[in-house]
Amino acid sequence: MYLNSIQIIGFVGQDPERRQVKGNGASFTVLSIATQRSWKDTQDEWHSKTEWHRVVAWNGLGERLAASVRKGDHVLVEGALVSSTYEREVRKGKKNVTVKQISWSIRADAVRKLNRTEKEPEAIASGSSHVALPELQEHTESAPF
């Protein structure tokens, strides 16, 4: 049995960006989400660290996110962790060296706005296994668990 599931709660760092795959023209939306952790050190001083997460939403979910999510929104993202590997040439001394790069992103299945100014959180979901408002749920052919 395998499980690839992730949930993060954070703030949107910039307005969503709509993009298209070069080969087949499929559309997707990219979000940049900031999470933060804080801790006290041995001298009782507070420290914090911000992590930035790349979130990718495909098809209808991406369209709805682009239309409704803005910079500064507080959101809960549910999805799967996905890696991408590519090669890049870098100059090392007098010759070029090819370096293998790995980047990580979250493939969003559902995004819920948690803004305090809203009376009830708005859910935007993808797939039939998530509870969401019917008009915002993307229907896919995958079977529910």
Kindly list the characteristics that best describe this protein.
1 helix; mainly beta; globular; disordered C terminus; 145 residues; 7% helix
Please write out the topology:
Layout lengths: L5 E7 L4 E4 L6 E14 L5 E13 H10 L5 E19 L2 E19 L9 E4 L10 E2 L7
Parallel strand pairs: 4-6, 7-8
Antiparallel strand pairs: 1-3, 1-5, 2-3, 3-4, 5-6, 6-7
Describe the 3D structure.
It is a single chain. Strand 3 and strand 4 (46-58) form a beta hairpin. It is globular, with a radius of gyration of 18 Å. It is mainly beta. It is 7% helix and 57% strand. It has 1 helix and 8 strands, in the order ββββαββββ. The chain has one domain: OB fold (Dihydrolipoamide Acetyltransferase, E2P). Strands 1-3-4-6-5 form a 5-stranded mixed β-barrel.
Short account of what is shown:
With 145 residues, the protein is mainly beta.
> Looking at this structure, what is the CATH superfamily?
Nucleic acid-binding proteins
Radius of gyration: 18 Å
Give helix and strand order, one letter per element, not per position: EEEEHEEEE
Instruction: Summarize the amount of helix as a percent range.
Output: under 10%
Structural class designation = mainly beta
Could you please say which CATH topology applies here? OB fold (Dihydrolipoamide Acetyltransferase, E2P)
Q: Would you identify the CATH architecture?
A: Beta Barrel
Mean pLDDT across the residues is 84
Number of self-contained structural domains: 1
Termini gap: 13 Å
Question: How many separate helices?
Answer: 1
